[in-house]
Amino acid sequence: MLKVLTALNNLLGALIGLAVVGLLSAGGWFVFQNYYAERWKAQEAERTLAAREAEIDALRADLLDRSRALDEAEQTIGAQAAQIGLLEEDVAAKAIQIEQLETAVALLKVDHRVAQVSVVSQQGSAAEGDLTTTFSFVELSERGEPIDRPRVFTIEGDVVYIDAWVIKFDDEHVELADPLRATSVCLFRRVFGERQQPSEGFPLDAVGSRPAPYRSGKPMSELEREIWEQFWEYANDPGRARDAGVRAAHGEAPSIKLLPNLRYRVLLRSSGGLSIVPEAAPPGEGAPL
What is the pLDDT of residue 235? Predict the structure, then answer.
């Protein structure tokens, strides 16, 4: 009996021991779960928070970079806009310059019709050596209208020379349409045939007289009057000519072979000299006006 009681007592002690161990284990596990688990959760939360903060910092840095890039782009756009504005101004200025140059070139190439020669008749023949040509010569106004009645002359042969004094002004005066020096001017001295001595030619405007274009009412400036009166002094004195804006002053005597049924325009270029251009005579022309 005693052994049974002892065995029961040992069994009960063992059960009690196991119960105590179980309680201690449960308490330990409870403490572990409530302490360490919460600590791990806090650490995990801290790691998550740190990752979020790092992400936020990265986003802030990216935003800052984008803002700087935007500022730089705006500055670049502003600089480019300013450059475009300058380029547009430069293009506009160059367009004006081109227009001015084109106008200047056009002015330099303007031809003024200053006289007209019309063939009236031809007699004889070159082969027989008795060819004569009768023609009319008339000076024209700026509108291309006759200034006075045509003068009729007869020469031996069919080649005529038109002798004139020509004053050519500096190109800058022509380009700027200077009211006094916008075009070359001329004084017709005489016409003569190839078989005549120039001194034996037919006089047109006498030296020292008022050139025909000025007799039509066009005023003569003091400068022009002085140049005509002292033509050869200006022609032979470069300094004096330069001071007056005169590029050249000299005589010219272009010639042309006259043919029946033609008339000839005598042209004076704004920046140059005389030229003779043939054209068909209107029907019925051939007698002096």
Answer: 87
Q: Encode 32-74 in three state secondary structure.
A: HHHHHHHHHHHHHHHHHHHHHHHHHHHHHHHHHHHHHHHHHHH
Residue 106 has pLDDT above 60, yes or no: no
Gap between the Cα atoms of 249 and 170, Å rounded: 11
Q: Could you give phi then psi for residue 192, rounded to 5 degrees? A: -155, 155
**In the beta sheet, which residues pair with residue 168?**
248
Q: Can you spell out the DSSP letters for 74-114?
A: HHHHHHHHHHHHHHHHHHHHHHHHHHHHHHHHHHHT-EEEE
Contact assessment for residue 247 and residue 240, using Cβ atoms and an 8 Å cutoff: no
Main-chain phi, psi angles of 278, to 5 degrees: -80, 155
Residue at 11: amino acid letter: L
For 128-187, the pLDDT digits (tens) are 889 999 999 998 877 778 888 899 999 999 999 999 988 887 756 445 555 454 466 778
To the nearest whole number, what is the mean pLDDT of the chain? 76
For the record, the structure tokens of 228 come out as 């005509």
CA angle 164, 170, 173 (to 5 degrees): 110
φ, ψ at 5 (rounded to 5°): -65, -40
Residue with tokens 């806009």: 81
